[in-house]
Amino acid sequence: MPLHLTKIAFQSESPATLKAWLESHADEARLTTRYLPKRLEEMDGGSLYWIHGHALVGRSPILGFQETGQGRYWIRLAPRLIPVRTAPKRAHQGWRYLEDKDAPPDLGGGEADDLEAMPPAMLNELARLGLV
């Protein structure tokens, strides 16, 4: 089972703007980080789960890690946002590990459209109560 990362969708107004940003990168999206994950070998096949509004809203498959040449690393991501069942997640700085058993499942078909239509505060409260 792969290991995943979580990260806040900083400066993203909504999951839709995050999706547009990811899709605007033809081959891959890159995020800069100071440190290479110590559990790098476990991340083969893993994803970066995005936090927006104190909830996990989607994931982007991790393509790998690459040194920038300036003492930092890029997290290379597939340029797509795969919607997941919304799950509450506290905000944090940087990235954190997420075990596969704790990762929310992907949404199928039209489920994402229904959830995106809800106001974020309502969606977060319903997720906190375990109703979505």
Automatic annotation (TrEMBL):
Taxonomically, the superkingdom here is Bacteria
Q: Which InterPro entries match?
A: UCP032025
What is the official name of this protein in its record? DUF1489 domain-containing protein
Species per Swiss-Prot/TrEMBL record: Sphingobium scionense
User: What lineage does UniProt assign to this protein's organism?
Assistant: Bacteria, Pseudomonadati, Pseudomonadota, Alphaproteobacteria, Sphingomonadales
